Amino acid sequence: MSLTESFRRRTAPQLHVGNKFRSLPKSARWSIGAIIIAACYFTPYWPDVPVLGWIVDTPGTSFENVLTDQIMMFILVALGLNVVVGFAGLLDLGYVGFYAVGAYTTAVMTSGQFSWPWIAAMPLSILMAMIAGVVLGTPTLRLRGDYLAIVTLGFGEIIRITANNSDWLGGPRGINKIARPPSFGPFEFSVLNAKPYWYLGFTVILIVIFVLTRLENSRVGRAWAAVREDEDAAELMGVNTFKFKLWAFAIGAAIGGLAGALYASKVGFVNPDNFQLQLSILFLAAVVLGGTGSMYGVIMGGILVAWIPERFRGFDTRRYFVFGVVLVLVMVFRPQGIIPRRTAAAGISGKEESE
Amino acid sequence: MLLEVQDLHVFYGKIEAIKGISFNVNEGEIVSLIGANGAGKTTTMRTISGVRPVAQGRILFEGQDITNMAPHDRVKLGICQAPEGRGIFPGMTVRENLDMGTYIRGYKSATKAADMEHVISLFPRLGERISQMGGTLSGGEQQMLAIGRALMSRPRLMLLDEPSMGLAPMLIAQIFSIVKQINSEGISVLMVEQNATQALKTAHRGYVLETGYVMKTGTGADLLVDPAVRAAYLGG
């Protein structure tokens, strides 16, 4: 038995953690969930905890800012991209485009000539990203597999280049003076204090998880799974595959837009360089690394992809080497992702086997 | 008349795969389309279920023109296909696969449990494998699952594309006897087969397809003894 094989077997029992959790009585599940959620709200204070603090520490940069500018965004984006790639099985290489649409909508509406309040710009950013998803999806979702990937890749670039060449979007200089969320009570949103952004962002993440869990276990989720497994067979079972693919695209885009809008209002400044193709690839890496189709998996993937380069910032430029090694190790030992989808864990990978 | 196909033409690119065929299925019948490779059998099936577009001609279901109707809407009318090469969902369990059959009647269909029990009584094997992933089933079991899943949609007309393909002789006999049983419960069946002997024995009527044309038609019994059909498809 090879080394990797034996490691895979030894780590396999971890897959049952989820099942064990589900078999607990309801009261126990609620309390464990509440404790985990509470602990996560206190993440900005983790660096002060012994041992844990040393692990999560990001030398050279503020952990708070890594948490809000990187980790939070990657979790949201991974959750959104997972709807497209994981639930419906559509390869999207231009997801950064939706992130950019959300960020730029908030930027344009809350700064300069419009000066909308933050709270009004949020829904519009989500809506605009969703519209972008429908506009891109309507003509392109007739394509499958690689062809879809190429078209979406182009879309991501079009958005960035358009922003770069449009004066009303600030051109290469971008847009600054983007509105912050309104402060209330003890939560003051300012440059100096990133904690309130995490409280806001984590709440948004919880809401997104809740909504997506409901969707995944509904008739919509079943339709997505059927499309992912075998599109023709899904159609022959009465699933309007085009409609559900478009929905997956629109919902995924909406979450991407939401993440972009939050990013813009946290950083206060956007320019086209924030939305490079490389980001789309990292987003997809987060999903694949965590476990395509598994929501808690992609959250883990998002956290790792965002956090590792910052954790090893001390290694200077070689930190990307560490990042690469971690990616390779995860793919060798956990080819289905850190927390695989249930079916992937059983060793059946949808389309590959049927073709 | 349940299904009526009139002068159907279907193209793959510039190649005309179906060159104007007409046939029909009456309520309660089993009809077989037989023919060699490339005769257009599977194309015909895919056109009736709506996955392939029609170039010319009409398809009527209970008198309603469905020529340009989307495939998923045809399922709602009661046309359900067990696709060629099984076409099950490999990453779903047998139960989830069967659940997908009731998709058109809503996710929480009241009759789902009863329907599933019925399918399992027809295919006890599926009951034994109910929590197993579809992709881990044997070829024969996958075929049973594809037929069972189509049954779950309570079709008026079931389309079976090569139900015997790649199966052991014992299993082939079993599949055909189940087709007869399904038919006796009031479901009409249109079946495409290379195994002409079995298909014609099971069917009330048959059509012999050859390179996109209907060459011959008659009752299953007549075609079985027809000298030309015997020579071409039944091994003399």
Helix/strand order of chain B: EEEHEEHEHHHHEHEHEEHH
Give, in spatial order, the strands making up the sheet with the most strands of chain A: 1-2
Number of H- or I-type helical stretches of chain B: 10
User: Counting H and I runs of at least 4 residues, what is the number of helices of chain A?
Assistant: 17
Overall spatial form of chain B: globular
Task: Characterize the biggest β-sheet of chain B.
Answer: 6 strands, mixed
What percent of the residues of chain B sit in helical stretches (DSSP H or I)? 25-40%
Q: Could you state the order of secondary-structure elements of chain A as H and E?
A: HHHHHHHHEHHHHEHHHHH
Shape, per Cα inertia axes of chain A: globular
CATH fold naming of chain B: Rossmann fold
Structural class of chain B: alpha/beta
DSSP strand tally of chain A: 2
Structure description:
The complex is a heterodimer of chains A (355) and B (236). Chain A is an all-alpha fold and 355 residues long. Chain A has a domain at 57-275. Helix content of chain A is 68%, strand content 1%. In chain A, strands 1-2 form a two-stranded antiparallel ribbon. In chain A, helix 14 packs antiparallel against helix 15 (319-333). The longest helix of chain A is centred in the C-terminal third of the chain and has 27 residues, at 241-267. The model of chain A is unreliable at 349-355 (pLDDT under 50). In chain B, 38% of the residues lie in helices and 26% in strands. The relative contact order of chain B is 0.19. Chain B contains 10 helices and 10 strands. The two termini of chain B are 34 Å apart. Chain B is an alpha/beta fold. The A-B interface holds A 218-219, 222-223, 225-226, 228-230, 232-241, 343-344, 346, 348-350, 353-354 and B 49-51, 70-72, 75-76, 80-81, 83, 87-92, 96, 99-101, 103-104, 106-107, 133-136, 149, 153.
